[in-house]
Design a protein that fits this description.
Elements (H helix, E strand, L loop, with lengths): L3 E9 L3 E6 L2 E6 L2 H6 L5 E11 L2 E7 L2 H11 L6 H10 L2 H9 L3 H5 L6 H16 L8 H13 L4 H9 L8 H13 L1
Parallel strand pairs: 3-5
Antiparallel strand pairs: 1-2, 1-4, 2-3, 4-5
Helix pairs in contact: 2-3, 4-6, 7-8, 7-9
């Protein structure tokens, strides 16, 4: 099993990159947030999930251990395959996904291509205890939750508030600072 690759980006594709590792080009499916940050010639290290089935083999790459962990947890849910798990992480990065599961927000999950109401319910049921036990990088969970509550109280939708909180810098220490940062960025 291929667990990690370090190499140079030689090509960016629609849903992935081709990574040159010692002269061998690996096609790796990656999240769009990562793909948009890198450019041809960048040296990167990806944690990978090597998927094998009757149709062939695929590599899924992640810049952080957290993304890979959430991807693997999603794969434990019946009827969620690697492509659906990637689509879920595209719409809901780990902190957003964790929040949605804690709040039993099936609406967020059903926005994902290939995820209907039954699958969204199954994801919430299967992962509720597993995801709440995982740490999430970035602003602390309590500050995130309180910031989301504050933003919804001033007119933001819960979905919009979660997305804005995801973009906050990691060094935010208080809810007031988080709200100010969101409002300042929103005005620009």
């Amino acid at each position: 099993m291929i667990a990690r690759l370090t190499g140079q980006i030689i090509e960016r594709e629609d849903r992935g990159v081709i990574l040159d590792v010692s002269g061998v080009g690996y096609r790796v499916a990656v999240l769009s947030s990562f793909r948009e940050k890198v450019k041809r010639g960048d040296n990167v290290t990806l944690r990978t999930y090597h998927h094998t089935n009757d149709e062939g083999q695929s590599l899924f790459g992640f810049a952080t251990k957290e993304d890979l962990t959430y991807f693997q947890l999603l794969l434990m849910v019946p009827s969620v395959g690697p492509r659906t798990a990637m689509n879920i992480l595209e719409v809901a990065p780990p902190a957003t996904l964790s929040q949605a599961i804690q709040e039993q927000d099936t609406g967020l999950l059903t926005k994902v291509s290939g995820v209907g109401r039954k699958t969204a319910d199954r994801i919430i049921i299967e992962l509720k205890g597993k995801i709440t036990a995982l740490p999430v990088a970035g602003t602390s969970g309590a500050i995130q939750q309180d910031t989301i509550a504050a933003l919804t109280s001033i007119g933001f939708s819960a979905q919009q508030a979660r997305e804005l909180v995801q973009k906050l810098p990691k060094n935010i220490a208080t809810v007031a600072e988080a709200v100010r940062t969101v409002l300042k960025e929103k005005v620009k």
